[in-house]
Structures are given as C-alpha cells and as structure tokens.
Write a structure and sequence with these properties.
Layout lengths: L4 E7 L2 H12 L4 E3 L7 E6 L4 H11 L6 E6 L6 H8 L3 E4 L5 H12 L7 H9 L18 H11 L4 H8 L3 H14 L5 H10 L4
Parallel strand pairs: 1-2, 1-3, 3-4, 4-5
Length: 203
C-alpha cells in the first residue's frame, strides 16, 4: 500500500465542510489536510451554478494544481458536462457520498482518472447537455448558427483572418463572436471553447 493521498475540503458552508471532513477522515487511504497542501480537493456544494463552476476552476489553478472531486446536493440536467468541462475529475451526489465511494473518487482523481456514479455516467453517454432545458440551467442558450460556424473553423485550426474570409465576416466580427462564447460559458480561450462545445454537445 502506498502513501495516503492528501485531500482538502473546500466549501462555502461550514456545516458542509465539517461533514465532508468527517467522511474523509473515515477513509484509511486518505490524509486530510488544508486545501492548499492537498493533492486532491473535495468541493462540496448544494447546487451547481456559475459561482460553483468558478470555484472548480479557481481550485484547479492553485499552485499545487489539485484534482477536484465535486460533491453536490442536487444536479440539474447538463450539470455533469458543465462540471467536467470546468476541470473536475470526479462527481458525486451528496446522498451517495459515503466514505467508501468518496474515498474511491478521491484516489481515482489522484491517479488522474475520472469517476461518475452509474446514473450520472448514463447522462453523459446517452444525451448531450441542453442548456435550454426547463430546469433553469445557468447557460444562456445554445450556440447560434454564426457562432457554430466560427467555432467549427476554429476547431479546424484556422486563424481569425482565414475564418473572416471564409465566412465573409470582418476579422473584428470573428474576434467578437469568439469572445462572446468564451464569456458566456466562462471559458479561458479558443481551445477551451472548442473543447467545451464538443463535450457539451453544442458543436
């Protein structure tokens, strides 16, 4: 047996944080520490929205670059794909996050594996995320035809000037379209926009 995996807890609610720490302390393969020193961070939230996804991204950019396992009280349709696109390596519903399951997810994340419960995995395999669903998704909507055309050419490796010429747009219009996409979905750059669109079934 190797050294225990260092794991920290990140939560906005101190009650959620305390409960998650208690669960992790029952896992023999884990060593609970401060999030800043952890190899894996467990982020515990009630529901998933823009602020929570930003927390996933922020934790991932810490100097130790910890893997993130998200534990959520409830998930809306499409949340699984949004979470994976934000960089999480594991996802559990809080009602299912007992010590064995949470410990398994943390150890898997430390190995750079991704774990999802069977029900959530079926969502990823069977159906792309649809930001138009009636459950109140945080997304602003599907890509427009213009956005999809621009993003497809970005995915093919074309530069701004080439895309503008092919679509009879100005370079400024192409730049604006890409910027709008990255801002709406809270993405870092063009490459992230293409990867997100593919994962979320938007392209």
């Amino acid at each position: 047996m190797g050294a225990p995996v260092s794991v920290g807890v990140v939560a906005l609610d101190p009650v959620l944080e305390a409960g998650t720490r208690t669960t992790l302390l029952a896992c023999p393969d884990l060593a609970v520490c401060e999030p800043g020193d952890a190899r894996v961070a467990v982020l515990t939230v009630d529901r998933l929205g823009p602020a929570e996804l930003d927390m996933v991204r922020t934790v991932r950019t810490h100097r130790t670059c910890p893997a993130v396992v998200l534990v959520a009280g409830a998930l809306a349709p499409g949340d699984v794909l949004h979470t994976l696109a934000a960089g999480a390596r594991g996802l559990l519903l809080r009602r299912e996050a007992d010590a064995p399951r949470l410990g398994h997810a943390v150890v898997a994340a430390a190995r750079d594996d991704c774990t999802l419960p069977p029900g959530l995995l079926e969502e990823v395999l069977d159906r792309p995320a649809d930001p138009r669903h009636d459950g109140g998704s945080w997304s602003d909507g599907m890509l427009s035809d213009r956005e999809r055309s621009v993003l497809r050419l970005v995915a093919d490796g074309h530069e701004t000037a080439e895309i503008a010429q092919r679509l009879s747009y100005s370079p400024r219009t192409v730049t604006t379209v890409v910027h709008d996409i990255t801002q709406r979905f809270r993405l870092r750059n063009r490459a992230h926009a293409v990867a997100y669109a593919l994962r979320a079934g938007l392209l």
